[in-house]
Amino acid sequence: MNIRLGWRLTRLILHLLQGLLTCALVFPWAGAALRERLVRRWSAKLLRICRVQVERVDGAAPLQHALIVSNHISWLDIFVINALHPCRFVAKAEIRAWPVLGWLVAQAGTVFIARGSRRDLRHIFKGLVDALAQHQRVAFFPEGTTSSQGSLLPFHANLFEAAIDARVPVQPYALSYLDGAGGWHPAVDYTGETTFVDSIFRIIGGEPVRARLACLAPIEAAGAHRRELASAAHDAIGKALVARRPREGGDPSSA
């Protein structure tokens, strides 16, 4: 391990310890506004330590009260979104097993759902509707798992019903990660046999990352069917990813 990589890893470990202390000592007494500020600040610093520069792409204004859906590429996704627009997340149960980070995202309000668990789904759905009714911003990844950059898996429609019941719009977000030349960043994909630890070392040991987040036009949920909402969100994110697809040769101006 070279000195630079060792220093980045040390800073990352210290930042995780700070997060543990904040969750243990501050979060139990903090109000919602303070928690949101702390989550935003902590997530932004985590990304800086990992040399991930976050850019908000011109698009629609982010809603303060909506069901947020996004494509899912990496464990970085939650922190990129939280660094700009903190949300309460619904995520797959495997994320809870991440070393340290799994516990931290749980303390930040993330709700975990097991694959194929109808009981979990019913319980979480009620919690989603309640949170949205309390004017919270709630987010989930409707692909259900991570996909490679430039691709988009089919969306699961079940949780879109929460937007209909809570009478709030769905706002799609489109995420991408670029290298210095403007092409897809090779270290970010978190698919196949890549482990969480492998992914961390690839990111902190690789070239700097440009994370780009586009907030897209809201989709009105009133009177819609959940499958219609899922299809409309999938189309919107897919079009945004195609529009920002790097040209061959990685021209940053086109990314």
Automatic annotation (TrEMBL):
GO MF terms held by the record: acyltransferase activity
Sorted UniProt keywords: Acyltransferase, Lipid biosynthesis, Lipid metabolism, Transferase
Keyword check for Acyltransferase: yes
Pfam families: Acyltransferase
Pathway involvement of the protein, from the record: Lipid metabolism
PANTHER family reported in the protein's UniProt record: 1-ACYL-SN-GLYCEROL-3-PHOSPHATE ACYLTRANSFERASE, 1-ACYL-SN-GLYCEROL-3-PHOSPHATE ACYLTRANSFERASE-RELATED
Protein's name according to its UniProt entry: Lysophospholipid acyltransferase family protein
Organism: Massilia aerilata
